């Protein structure tokens, strides 16, 4: 494919993630935003607010875009930023039209439909990537390098937390957001947030093969939960994990706990969530990043995102009688945020210049872990995950 700008369409551009993708596509010299798709009444106003050119058409759905007589023609690729239960039908329409797709996580709300989508993309020779943008975060890039190079030795265990407090408007500010608290429509902290963690854990440590979940007592919508037919999604879980390598892990997940221990607060990657550092009074200029992962190995422990490797040092006896040393690992100084890096990667993949990082298959494997967690919550049993 030539180096001319890729024509991009964004589906669901008026949502939180859609807005971020829209801004990055507009700013990227290798992309041209040729269409935005969103049926919401406020889409036109949001288009103006984001600085989308007036000539860029708004369509109610993908079918309308593909059938239009727009002079720019069919897009080369599309970014799907809609609720999870719509990912497969929208992506299917795009793939069948020969459009390369970056679909936001999770790839789907069911394993079966996600697998069908992955197979369809292969059949049509179309790239299907899943928006696990944290793979492009410099802290994760550095952690992957450290683990892969053997700095921690054989990884024995991982301990992790993702916990923060989502405000009520996150769920109720707009009727279109009601899916976020609906289990059947793909809401809940497992599919919305842990799917990122599942992908990163497997990216760093290999495939998860067994999970057990204990649900955290919910704090919201207690009246609705009294109804036996309620569809309220979970707010948190305590997990035990086993990886194919033999590594084991624990994970605390909650979107109702007041806590600094979340990837967003530790790295500052989300501009809407204030960053926290481990200094006095939480002042940003003080201290290291708040840790969310601790990867324990036979040669040392790596905490992430502060990227401190704790070990005895080269040539030293591994013994509790020896003094431990803490060394901060370097990260690259690339100023681009992970969403920008992910978009550049998507461009290179579409142009045939790079192999995809988070394929549809990888996205499906992250979803599979999440579905196993939901099954464990429902059955109160340990769940093995088939390859």
TrEMBL record:
Segments forming domain Gfo/Idh/MocA-like oxidoreductase C-terminal: 144-385
Bilayer-spanning residue ranges: none
Domain of life: Eukaryota
InterPro entries: Gfo/Idh/MocA-like_OxRdtase_C (IPR004104), Gfo/Idh/MocA-like_OxRdtase_N (IPR000683), Gfo/Idh/MocA_Oxidoreductases (IPR051450), NAD(P)-bd_dom_sf (IPR036291)
Pfam families with a match to the protein in the record: GFO_IDH_MocA (PF01408), GFO_IDH_MocA_C (PF02894)
Listed name of the protein: Quinate utilization oxidoreductase QutH
SUPFAM superfamilies given in the database record: Glyceraldehyde-3-phosphate dehydrogenase-like, C-terminal domain, NAD(P)-binding Rossmann-fold domains
Domain Gfo/Idh/MocA-like oxidoreductase N-terminal as annotated: residue spans: 6-132
